[in-house]
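Reopening: Kynureninase still failing for me.
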Amino acid sequence: MDPDSGFDGDRTHDDGVDYARNRDADDPLAEFRDRFDVPGEIYLDGNSLGPISDAAEASLDRAVEEWRELGIEGWTEADRPWFWYGESLGEDLAPLVGADPDEVVVANSTTVNIHTLVGTFLEALEDRPPGILVNELDFPTDHYAIRAQLRQRGYDPDEHLHLVESRDGRTIDETAVVDALEAHDIGIVFMPSVLYRSGQLLDVERITAAAHDHGALAGFDLAHSVGVVPHDCSSHGVDFAVWCSYKYLNAGPGSIAGLYVDERHHGKTPALAGWWGHEKETQFELRETFTPADSAGGWQIGTVPVLSAAPLAGALEIVHEAGIDAIREKSLALTSYLISLVDENLTDLGCSVATPREPERRGGHVAITHPEAERVSEALRDRGLVVDFRPPNVIRVCPAPLYTGFEDVWEFAEGLREILVDREYEDIQADSTVS
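Support: Ran it again with your exact input. Result attached.
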């Protein structure tokens, strides 16, 4: 990162809160904070669920009014005709994942998209090995879906699902991915862009190149990076990807998911075919034979859920207005600042940072470990400092750039220090409730 950008995180902070306030005063994204309604005193859980913005609320309200005023005519006469809603929002999303518009569509949920894309590419392997390479630190739903798709094709998941092991319980070494490709017959590599516990950012380009060098396809779960990390899926040759829109994109709970399919795979028959993925030109001829759209739109399944997709339209307006590169720059500055505050003030109280310190290996959140992480997380919430806990010992802290400032990070670190010094967490009963 350019040390002259004003967002370097490698300085000392002898000025305390004044340092943070000075950084906020120079922040070009500070104005976006007022466009969000942020729960709690300080909201640091946007890697689980982003808050509502004025633009997301307005686009939802607009869809409701179109439903009220247009009724069924909304499919063709709405501001964004609902018939093309998935493709239209996919076009808005495409620059964030480095893709052409017809390579991206919003559809389904993340898990459903894993099912249909992994299933599709398992069938496309033909005579190639059906082995799928994942890692042991994945979000579990990815493995659930992949195992189900293997079983449905008569493959034993215990034999055909291969795990890259972590050497430290926190991160995955890309060299271990390459080693696994050499050790097993692999047809598909499916990895996250960012590990959900530690926040490690994997090298998508390197993994994709390694997969292709070994004759395998490369797919990614971008759920923990879309909207905070720029991607270049098309130029890196990524075969397919999935993501949600309720984290850094701030499109609301259960909002519609997205997917990317490289253009060289367009026209394949989806594993989970549905009428909304039919070519648009003949969709309402209601033919008995399914003809998939010759675009990522072919992997849509059921009718687009307009009301769960509508907030994304406004949410993307804000992301594009801020600029994904500026968002990434501020994100790295905030997480660097947080890491330095943990190092300076919290290590002697049992805290450590489990997130890679190198900026190029870090996503948008920081994992802080503590033996009493669950109870400490609850104590933080009781103070209005909203974070989340991941077993066994991780407090995930997400200073999302669009609505979080440096003073917020400073106040969080001070609040955490006070909780640990005063042992406030000891009065809280751990119940393993995960948010």
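The chain has two domains: 17-37+323-427, 57-320. If you still see a failure, please send the error message rather than a screenshot.
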